[in-house]
From TrEMBL:
Record key words, sorted: Flavonoid biosynthesis, NADP, Oxidoreductase
Transmembrane region(s): none
Listed Gene3D superfamilies: NAD(P)-binding Rossmann-like Domain (3.40.50.720)
InterPro entries: Epimerase_deHydtase, NAD(P)-bd_dom_sf, NAD(P)_dehydrat-like
Name of this chain's protein: Dihydroflavonol 4-reductase
Function: Bifunctional enzyme involved in flavonoid metabolism.
A Pfam entry, by short name: Epimerase
Pathway(s) where this gene product acts: Pigment biosynthesis; anthocyanin biosynthesis
Species this chain originates from: Rhododendron simsii (Sims's rhododendron)
High-level lineage: Eukaryota, Viridiplantae, Streptophyta, Embryophyta, Tracheophyta
Known EC number: 1.1.1.219, 1.1.1.234
């Protein structure tokens, strides 16, 4: 009780804006900020989509919902006004482009350019008001690789191990459109921030899982559970991550939200920060899933194909930990909360019986 009161008091008088408030991370971030006593400006294209979340957020008069569209310049002016900081969580979760005669042009016009222009429109709104002291951008592990320029595994993956843009264009591995969107949007955001003197920090999220507030099952949860569901698209994304990183790095949604808030408030935070509570090779991941939700050996064998061959690269959150951040949830918590939430919403059937 005392801890809750202390957390509420900490946020008294401060306001933060959250874009993509109805998404997996965004919805939890709104809830987490309100729990700590902050006023929250939640933005989304269609406020009606927040109706089921408002009772879960329990924000009272500290919650304000704004209609805003990233593709409309000035659309966020009102939402960020008076806020001490902005969390830019909104992002397209498109992983592939439709079959097209010119797939590169289609990707640029329909996904990459809108992602970049939307982020710049938001940052322009932030630069217009003196109240915004920092913007925290939600990045992704998809922007990193555990392989060096020669294709050899690195011992440690840190924030400097960026995936080459030309390699993504060339290989077009599963989920490539999302990778490019994140890479190029983050790059454009830091360039604009430097030119406009906007204090920008990015959180490099690993595979985010745990319980979810959204009505639909988040894409990252579908990726993590693909060994169970056998969904070919999400299985291929999981395999692509494993091929690029040598393991699957994970973080609980509540920890990723805590990291966002921590980096917003920490005076010495700057640049990019990997947020990974733990990582495991594919066979270990599948075994942990099987403990929580037994499934057939056929599905398990189909995914345990490519292993690192040696000790996997360390996906390091040292930069974040060195600032003083600590993770609350480990691997077993992440698996348990993810499976239980998926059963509760009907995505997974309870009481599985194996053949």
């Amino acid at each position: 009780m005392e801890e809750n009161e202390e957390r509420r008091g900490k946020g008294k008088g401060l306001s933060y804006c959250v874009t993509g408030a109805t998404g997996f991370i965004g919805s939890w971030l709104v809830k987490s900020l309100l729990r700590r006593g902050y006023t929250v400006h939640a933005t989304l294209r269609d406020p009606a989509k927040a109706l089921h979340l408002i009772p879960l957020w329990s924000g009272g008069d500290r919650l304000r919902v704004f209609r805003a569209n990233l593709q409309e310049e000035g659309s966020f002016d009102e939402a960020v006004k008076g806020c001490s900081g902005v969390f830019h969580v909104a992002a397209s979760m498109e992983f592939e482009v439709p079959a097209n005669e010119d797939i590169d042009s289609c990707a640029r016009a329909n996904f990459i350019e809108p992602a970049i222009s939307g982020t710049l429109n938001l940052l322009k709104s932030c630069s217009k008001t003196e109240s915004v002291k920092r913007v925290v951008f939600t990045s992704s592990i998809s922007t990193l690789t555990a392989k060096d320029s020669s294709g050899n595994w690195r011992n440690v993956v840190d924030e400097s191990c960026q995936t080459p843009v030309d390699h993504v264009w060339k290989t077009k591995a599963s989920g490539w459109i999302y990778v490019l969107s994140k890479l190029l949007t983050e790059e454009a955001a830091f360039q604009f921030a430097k030119q406009s003197e906007v204090d920008l920090v990015s959180v490099i999220t690993t595979t985010v899982a745990g319980s979810f507030l959204t009505e639909t099952v988040p894409a990252s949860v579908r990726v993590l559970l693909s060994p169970i569901t056998g969904d070919p698209m999400f299985s291929s994304i999981l395999s692509a991550v494993n091929s690029r990183m040598g393991s699957i790095a994970l973080v609980h949604v509540e920890d990723i939200c805590s990291a966002h808030m921590f980096l917003m408030e920490h005076a010495r935070a700057e640049g990019r920060y990997i947020c990974s509570a733990c990582s495991c090779v594919m066979s270990e991941l599948v075994n942990h899933l099987a403990k929580e939700y037994p499934f057939s050996n056929l599905q398990r064998c189909a995914l345990v194909e490519e292993e690192h061959g040696s000790v996997p690269s360390e996906i390091s959150s040292k930069k974040l930990r060195d600032l003083g951040f600590s993770f609350k949830y480990g691997l077993e918590d992440i698996m348990n909360h993810t499976v239980n939430s998926s059963i509760d919403c009907g995505f997974l059937y309870p009481n599985v019986k194996l053949d």
